[in-house]
Structures are given as structure tokens and as C-alpha cells.
């Protein structure tokens, strides 16, 4: 390669690289697996970290069984429930919005598949913190950050039997806290709590029993040590749009 051509190629590579940086920087709401616009994926999505990543708050054995047995079963059963039906090519968002017209298999396994995707991605261990934007909204809605946690904890601790606690952005763009039974979620038309999920907590016994046994409250308290606020902030900003 001539000196001149080499120079030209180098410049092109550098420009292409900078363009990539610019596109990523200008698109902070870049879609992740948590956006329900797509159809159920052809392959079971990987856990975004190792089984032991959330130790000691959530133990590796619980994570392994939870992801590889429970979540995988919801995924497989959901794939089988939509196979050969119109739902095979329908976005999760659409399926959830029309859940009242769907079977229990689609409701339980579709919810079970998607809720766990949300859950894995809003967990992590690091130094993330709630954004100023989210903190301000939390403070003005619940009075203080502590009051917000107390309200969320209460939703999680008092959900009778199996279910989920949620922080959502309601259709009129207000923060709200609530819980759903079984594998229902706030995107479903059958759910009294409606909105875009911002933060999810699984309170099924399978999520904590090996480590916490009957002490769900201890698990709920430990949850706050492993919230991935970067993802929660991203969801909030995306839902506001
Ligand atoms: Mn679960």
C-alpha cells in the first residue's frame, strides 16, 4: 500500500470510529433487552453477569436455579405457547396490552419471561446512584427517598403469596408504587397497576428461600444493596419521552 493510500485509509478508519462514538453518545436511550418492542427472542437471553455477582445479598445458588431453571422454564413455555399463533410475530408490549384476550399460558409464561429480564437488568453491584432527575421525581412524589423505599418495601413485603413489587411511570407520567400477583406486570391490561416498569422486585419464594427462608423482609432490605441505578435511570428517562 502506498504511503498516501495508507494515510487515507487511516483517516477513514478514524472517522468511522469517531462516528460510532458520536452515535452511541447521542443515543443514551439505546434499546436493551428490557424494551418490550420486540417479539420473544429465538434464544434464551444470557444472564448479564455471573451467578455470584450479587453475593452476599443474593447468593449464587439461588441465582443459578432462578435463572437457569425458573426463568428458562418461563421462556420455553412462552415460546411454546405462542408458536404457530399470531403472538409469534407480535411484540411483547402488544401481547401484554391485550392480555385479557390471551390464555393463562401466555399470561403466566409471557409475564414470567419478561419480568425476569427486567429484574436481572435492574440488579447489579457497583457504585451507581439514582440520577438527579429521578431523585427529584421521587422526592416530589413520595416526600423523601426514605419514604419512597419504605413504600416500595411495604408493597414487596405485603404482597400475599407470589408476585412482584414495582416502581412504574404511569400513563400520565407520574411515579407510582404497587405490586402484582403471580407473573402479572403493569404493562398488562388486566393489571390494576398500570405503567412502564422502572424498578422490579421478584418476591416469589424461589427468589430468596434458600438464603432467607421465611424472612422475605430481610431479602427486600438486602435488595437495595444490589440495585443497578444506571439501568433504573435509563428506564425512567426513556419512559418520560
Ligand atoms: Mn422469579
Could you characterize what this model shows?
Strands 2-1-3 form a 3-stranded antiparallel β-sheet, sandwiched between helices. The protein has one domain (59-241): 3-Layer(bab) Sandwich (minor pseudopilin epsh fold), CATH 3.55.40.20. It has helices at 3-25, 60-82, 92-97, 104-121, 132-142, 145-158, 209-212, 216-223, 229-240; strands spanning 163-169, 175-181, 196-202. Residues 17-31 have low confidence and may be disordered. By secondary structure, the chain is mainly alpha-helical. β1 and β2 (175-181) form a beta hairpin. Manganese (II) ion binds next to α2.
Topology (elements, then pairings):
Layout: H1 3-25, H2 60-82, H3 92-97, H4 104-121, H5 132-142, H6 145-158, E1 163-169, E2 175-181, E3 196-202, H7 209-212, H8 216-223, H9 229-240
Antiparallel strand pairs: 1-2, 1-3
The structure holds manganese (II) ion.
The site of manganese (II) ion (MN) has 7 residues, from helix 2.
What are the defining features of this structure?
single chain; 241 residues; mainly alpha; minor pseudopilin epsh fold; 3-stranded antiparallel beta sheet; globular; binds manganese (II) ion
